[in-house]
């Protein structure tokens, strides 16, 4: 995932969020404010269909993002600076995933607001009907039980939707944790190889310094000159530790 492609991806996601919210939230709020129950219900159902389509798009984008992440991680493993490359890719993926999560939260919030507006409109409509009956001399029927019975299915549906959303978020967190563990296990050989290469390079440099000093001393002794005072060798680097759980070298 290149640095230049990420900003354009995030901008596209942000525009999609704004468009989706305007599409699904505006008609319901307008109809509810006008007191048109039938129009508000139709607008809500249309908004629900739009939200369902938007959630499906989010899942498709998340799957595409995951596939792109795996592809670019595979490229990172072919480079010398594996960890730096992987860190850049994963940071960009986290940014894009945050945009997707924001879209989901905003869709859920809009749905809750619209359901609350519909319930309030239903209650107000019943109250208006009762007032009209009182004014015309009719005895109004009890409203509380009916309103409660109408609200219960909507409340139950909302709770079920919220439970599904929480379960999906939990599954996403667990999947992310499993992926992170798998990534750490996959990159351990690369990190060990880099550490071993650095250790061997330092060992070669120390050996070359000793050999150079020994040659200089031998040449000085052969020519009758006093050998130069030896400089202290840098501390020898410690060998890289073996990964946890690996067998000792034989």
What does this structure look like?
The chain has one domain (5-186). Helix 2 (37-76) packs antiparallel against helix 3 (82-135). 81% of the residues lie in helices and 0% in strands. The chain has four helices and no strands. Mean pLDDT is 75; it is low at 244-250. It has helices spanning 5-34, 37-76, 82-135, 144-222. It is an all-alpha fold and 250 residues long.
Q: In which range does the helix fraction lie?
A: over 70%
Q: What integer is the average pLDDT?
A: 75
Estimate what percentage of residues fall within beta strands. under 5%
Major β-sheet annotation? none
The Rg value, from CA coordinates, equals 34 Å
Assembly level: single chain
Total number of β-strand segments? 0
Count every helix, treating DSSP H or I runs of 4 or more residues as helices: 4
Number of domains: 1
The succession of helices and strands, N to C, reads HHHH
Low-confidence stretches: 244-250
Silhouette: rod-shaped
SS-based structural class? mainly alpha
Distance between the termini: 41 Å
Give the arrangement of secondary structure elements.
Layout: H1 5-34, H2 37-76, H3 82-135, H4 144-222
Helix pairs in contact: 1-2, 1-3, 2-3, 3-4
Summarize the structure.
The chain is mostly helical and 250 residues long.
Features:
single chain, 0% strand, rod-shaped, 250 residues, disordered C terminus, mainly alpha
